[in-house]
What we know:
The protein is α/β, with parallel strands linked by helices. The protein is built from 15 helices and ten strands. A five-stranded parallel beta sheet has the order 3-2-1-4-5. A five-stranded parallel beta sheet has the order 8-7-6-9-10, with helices on both faces. Strand 4 (95-99), helix 5 (113-117) and strand 5 form a beta-alpha-beta unit. The longest helix has 14 residues, at 184-197.
Amino acid sequence: MDEAKKPIRVYLDGCFDCFHFAHANALRQARELGDVLVAGVHSDGDITQHKGRTPVCSEAERYRLIRAVKWVDEVVESASFLPEVELLEKHNCDFCVHGDDKSCNADGTDSYRFLKEAGRYKEFKRTPGISTTDIIKRLLLATDDRSCAAEEGDFSESKSSELIQRPLAEASGCLEISPGINRPSENCLMSKFLAKFASKVERKDGDRAVYIAGDFDLFNEWHLELLEKARSHGDYLIVGVHSDEDVKTYRGDRFPVLTLLERVLTLVAFRCVSEVVVGAPLAVTEKLIRRFRVDVVCQEKSENPLLRKSCQDEGNFELVEISVDVENFPIIERFKRNRVVYTKLYGSPDGIS
């Protein structure tokens, strides 16, 4: 009798700072190359040493986020920036995989040279269009003191607005596939990635559906805990993502930092999310409740009085208010603490294009 086939264990490492959909796509591609994905996450100290900057998100937060991604089976904390064969052996991994962009240590040498020499390294195509560096540059613009002109209403004409927003057209309604993206290329990109990222878990008869909505801009540990707590009130979590234009109405013209497309694709990578409503309405309507067969609506305790009014008006679903234990310290506020360092690395807002 033949022995059971040994599972292929794949190792992928990274900083995973300011988690975005290119990180998610890297994890997805790595997982498709084997049966088990072991994700190595670099420490704060190693990132500071080799990248020349303090990470925006702490190592503890990054460990938690990566564990919650649906393609990740195991996490290695404080993973070496210079992986060697011994590391693969320790975690029973067959090979290491990385994107086709070059990765170097502080001394300029190839981070994966030892694994390449040993024939234990593979590559996949890097996801274009977004990176942590790109997000940091957008944050430099968003936190530029001169952008306060947004409060007077002239920020929409500025260079900063154009670069930060890169807006998709406003979503009109609530559909699983973005209804409001007018540019064919963006619509195709959305469909392409949603098809690849979509969960294969189907909603079963009798499943209790939970709905929660927000902007989910610059996804962090606070967002994750909010979603996990919402999911605990049912079996199937539906997450509504507000359009870029709607986010501006309650957060100001400098937001969102990430576009609707980018925010949606980040969300669908997480294990707790069952379905996403793209361009969700600010108010919970009877139409939305019927269409998605929602049983429970969740919200964070301190947010959105409009939602409470919707619940009172509709009266045909349960409202659950959630208290999140993790401190809500938005990424943009953390970024401001080290803005001087980032400006030295990436230039002043006037030099960003």
